[in-house]
Amino acid sequence: MGKYILAQTLEEAFDALTKYRDKARVISGGTDLLLLIKGGKVKVDCIVDITNITDLNYIDYDNGLIRLGALVTHSEVEDSSIIKEKAVLLAEASRAVGSPQIRNRGTVVGNVANASRAADTPLALIALDAKAKVVSKKGQRIERVEDLFVGLGKTNLKNEELITELYFRGLKPEQGGSFVKLAKRRALAIAGVNVATVITVDRERSVFSNARIAVGCIVPKPQRAKRAEEALIGYPISDESIRNASQEAAGEVSPRTGIHGSAEYKREMTKVLVARTIKNALEWIKWEG
Amino acid sequence: MGKIRIRFRVNGQDAELAVDPMATLLEVLRRQLGLTGTKKGCDAGDCGACTVIMDGKAILSCLTPAMQAAGREIITVEGLSCNGELHPLQKAFIECGAVQCGFCTPGMLLSAKALLDQNPNPTREEVRMAISGNLCRCTGYKKVIDAVMLASERIG
Amino acid sequence: MHVVGKRIERVDALKKVMGKALFADDLRFEGMLYAKVLRSPVSYAKIKKVDASLAKELKGVRAVLTARDIPGENRIGILGDPFRDQPVLADEKVRYIGDPIAIVAADSAKIAEEALNLIKVEYGELRPVFDPVEAMRQDAPRVHEKGNLASLRKIRRGDVKEGFARSDVIIEGTYKTPFQEHAYLEPEAGIGKVDENGDITVWACTQFPSNVKKEVAKVLGLSLSKVRVIQTVTGGGFGGKLDISVHCHIALLASKTGKPVKLVYTRPESIMASTKRHPFIVKYKTGATKDGKLLAVEAEIIGDTGAYASYGPAVLTRAAVHATGPYSVPNVKVDAYAVYTNNSICGAMRGFGVTQVAIAHEAQMDKLAERLGMDPIEIRLNNALDVGSRTATGQLLSHSVGIKETLQQAHKAASEWKQDISRTVPTGRRGIGVGAMWYGIGNTGHPNPASVFLDLQDDGSITVLSACAEIGQGLDTVLAQIAAEELGTNIKDVKVISGDTGVAPECRGSSASGQTYIAGNALRQAAIQARETLFQQVAADLKVKPEDLYLDNQAICVSGDSERRISVVEAIKRCRSLGILTLGSGWSNPDTTPLEPETGQGNPYVTYSFATHLAQVEVDAETGESRILKLAAFNDVGKAINPIGVEAQLEGGLSMGLGQALMEELLIEKGAIKTPTLAQYLIPTSLDMPEDMSVSIVEEAEPSGPFGAKGVGEPASIPTTPAILSAIYDAVGARVTKLPATSERVFQALRRRPY
């Protein structure tokens, strides 16, 4: 029978993580971890429960910077007026997760820490250029969310480390964002392809001054579609640019045929979804072209 | 033995139990508390039959460690009626023909209650969204939504 | 009528909304043990050796059983001989991944699971076959000694060669449907218990308690009188709980250990071990005149029945009989093959072969309409069966043929829908589609009787006793209504005790959409018997003829003389004073004829249900995604005993039909299921169903049915799938002939369009 630590403070959590090393796992919502344990994919001697560390439950907005604590759930993000106004794509991504019951418990940080291939919210975080505060007994490091993912289901988090916070700048007036998910049904669905995009426009010159496009699902870890971004940055805001960028995105990914679809289809859909997120993002800033 | 004592409230009553630290809330409710109204449809978070309300929110008890119930307020289907009086949702489900095989019903009722407790006058779309994590193979969902709307009218 | 035809609250709804309904896993007995099943991880192999010694020694393990421990016959099969080909515990060979080899009973499920890991099985792997077409070849590996052809059903009517020769237009098509899963919310579960006499009681979910009783008795080598089956509240069946699942295993373990034994399937185990819908390959050829009159239909149907027969031959037979669709076709040639492979076992699933052929016959009608420039509903109306038509099996339809009415109503609705041409996404295109079907009620040309007992008690209240299974479809309520109606009782005073072989004799399985019709008729007989006993005595006392009496508001009255009446309770009292009990028994079997082996000619059903469904879809032309905007069902049910129950079935049927059209496919590769969870095998959620869903009940009374009723369970879902496929084609000109029409398949079909 394993151990279950209901940590009341971060120190307690770190103590347990250090003691049990790779046999300890952190739990917040539990929607990912319990599945892994039940499926025998993970053997755990000690569960370190951080849900009582109430300091970790916050959505803060200060001077353009949005900070999410480790215990913020998808439901809270979905309903947050700050996120809906300033980081709409993250609200869209959270809303797309699983089902209401799963959103009530699953945390945005948990989604990142578990590095699930199909996860929705990490894409929005990457498009927003979010950073994670990775904390351990020894100290803290700041890591770009996109750099945390090192492979299928893997982050570069060490056993004794916890993500305590995610932060990113909210969308500015010249920025728009969108998240789109293609799945086989409209709820409780794992994506076949999902995309999150943030674009920045230079209204005077009518060009894209920046773009961050994150593609998920069909790749082992969330991936920036860098060639697609380059096909936008500095280019006019036009259907042609969007077409080129989405074409580039399709060329950048290496999907595999699986139960969610064939490689060819996923590649095509990458193109379609990248184009859609760019258009949605332009709509967000009410770009009339 | 390794079991841990936890205290929580279920259906308005205090409960104190020694639980296996690795047990799910679903197991504890069904086995230790004998509250078999909450169902195990898949044990993997895919069907919603195990839905209960914890601190006002609908959650999946099959994916919730029993330990996380400590200090919290749980409502199961058995806690919906009060002194033998059915909850308006239960009455509406019966009247609207929203019950067929009945296996998804407890979970549906609780997802619906969690919604109505937060949003007493939902639109049909909002009800549809609230039950989107509860699979039903029998009803096609229409009469379930009818029932929740009827209950919301009566409560409000 | 005071209760039949009224919107009645279900008699079992209260316990279900209170969470008090006892499903099998909710039951617990003192000293109960927990069972687990060791299942084959390989598709096809000889069993060389099974060593359970280590498992038996594990602390907490109370029994480990293999094939040699079976006291009776180690064979089950729902169709009986010659299709009783499935071992309860594999003896010589395993034939599919999931085939049970050993069962364990232990103090906890956890210990039982550990014990499974300690059982050593040596397999001699054999070359498997997974493709039914390949399996039909001479050189294919034999899944069974007798060969891989489980059955061939032939329908021959007229002369198709001549029919095609006379046809102005010929349409051909090949349609492929996948394995599908019932996905009832309740995984299989049951408890077996033995008493001091060695009598076995099985509490379990099932659609067919009487069959469970027979099989358990056979497998345990007991006489039928020593086995009782009590169906627990069953959380859905849809055909998947007709076969034996946990029942023989728990009976064996209970018998061996002397303790109650519970077995509960995990969801992946349920998906792996229970039967599936037969995947079909349908090659279809239609010949018609230039005016759209059908002259000939030729179809070849290949159904993969998997490792064991289950209902295979019956499914292919029903498919063959219904292959023409609800249309009059003078020349018909159908060959329907049920083929063994080493895939999962295929058996009954809502629609039972008609679901699959309907996809074919409706696509063919659409293609024909398009080719001839005719309206798709008009062309169906011109060919629709009617009273006086002969079917492909030569049966003369003499009554209750509602297909035209359903088509006409659909036509009217469709024209109203056509006025709406908006779209929700810029790349969306809208379309409307129609699907029609017919479905024979009860087993195809094969006996399937139901029996019911009825007791009219001293106080006028009634108890109905039967072994028929309420599986969520609403049977208990329908039976209560029929009893209440026949005896003029308040429905609140009718108690139905069902699903228990200990209180009533044999009852057919809840299948073939036949319980309202068959069990309903049996119940009517029983009720009438009780009523006649009552009337005999009252007539004698009042010195009138029994025919002059009638029931009115809990009283027995004399025709034309309203002063003379006696309350039902008084009348019963009078009977009792003479030692007369007012009870009844009834049993009913539809009067059908078996099909001729070479031509399929015969009268396989007494009555058919008919339906037309309509769908409006918006297809996203860029992604191939379909959003269903509107669904409408028009079903001829003969008579809706409980209209709200019929609506409920129809709405549920629409959701299953939608799921099958867009997202349901059980992927099996080299015999291994790739979609063993409900996250991978997808059924519709509330967000997948349209808000605009309407159902319309058509009542073409069936004279031989209780109050004119026929059936609705399967007719509720069969026409929806073709309607949606038809709508997708109407929207974007993409015809998907390999199901389901996932966004990718629609996308691929879009690309293949000539324009």
Describe this structure as you would to a colleague.
The complex is a heterotrimer of chains A (289), B (156) and C (755). Among the domains of chain A are: 1-52, Uridine Diphospho-n-acetylenolpyruvylglucosamine Reductase, domain 2, CATH 3.30.43.10; 175-284, CO dehydrogenase flavoprotein, C-terminal domain (Enolase-like, domain 1, 2-Layer Sandwich). In chain A, 36% of the residues lie in helices and 27% in strands. Chain A is built from twelve helices and 14 strands. In chain A, α5 runs antiparallel to α8 and α11 (239-252) packs antiparallel against α12 (263-284). The longest helix of chain A has 22 residues, at 263-284. The N and C termini of chain A lie far apart (63 Å). The model of chain A has no long low-confidence stretch (mean pLDDT 93). Chain B is α+β, with helices and mostly antiparallel strands and 156 residues long. Chain B folds into two domains: 4-79, Roll (Ubiquitin-like (UB roll)); 88-155, DNA polymerase, domain 1, CATH 1.10.150. Helix content of chain B is 33%, strand content 16%. Chain B has helices spanning 25-32, 88-96, 105-118, 124-130, 142-155; strands at 4-10, 13-19, 51-54, 57-60, 73-75. In chain B, strands 2-1-5-3-4 form a five-stranded mixed sheet, with helices on both faces. The radius of gyration of chain B is 15 Å and the shape is globular. The termini of chain B are far apart. The mean pLDDT of chain B is 97. Chain C is globular, with a radius of gyration of 27 Å. In chain C, α6 packs across α7. Chain C has a seven-stranded mixed sheet with strand order 3-5-1-12-9-10-11, with helices on both faces. Chain C has 755 residues and is of the alpha+beta class. In chain C, β23 and β24 form a beta hairpin. Chain C is built from 18 helices and 30 strands. Classes of the chains: A alpha+beta (289), B alpha+beta (156), C alpha+beta (755). Chains B and C meet through α2, α3, α4 and α5 of B and α1 and α16 of C.
